[in-house]
Amino acid sequence: MVDDERLFVCDAEGLLDGGRGVRFALLAWGQPATGFVIRHRGQVHGYLNRCAHVPIELDWREGEFFESGGQYLMCATHGAVYEPDSGKCAGGPCRGGRLHPIAVHEGAGKIYWLPDERFRAPAQG
Fold first, then answer.
1. Any transmembrane segments, and where (predicted)?
2. Segments making up each domain of the chain, as ranges
């Protein structure tokens, strides 16, 4: 992996297991959107910040994606819940759906996301 392919999200020490996530801007299929990273069971996971039920952002308040028990990611609008490690719907109105994963990399104390054909960096300006 070439450093130019990775886009910095946050310092790894700030992303606590089951804690607040970190949002970042991106283009999803050419349209402005946000992605987010969370840590679950020691691993970092990235997703498009868009519920599979209705295409709205998930977080309750900025960066708050986990439900109160810290077991699942939960949409603040309709209560759809997702498995943090796979993005698969675990209950609620998202039945059969899943979050869109974003490739992430953790190394040298930092967390990066990796653009692909679906998700690109927003224009700098």
1. none
2. 26-103
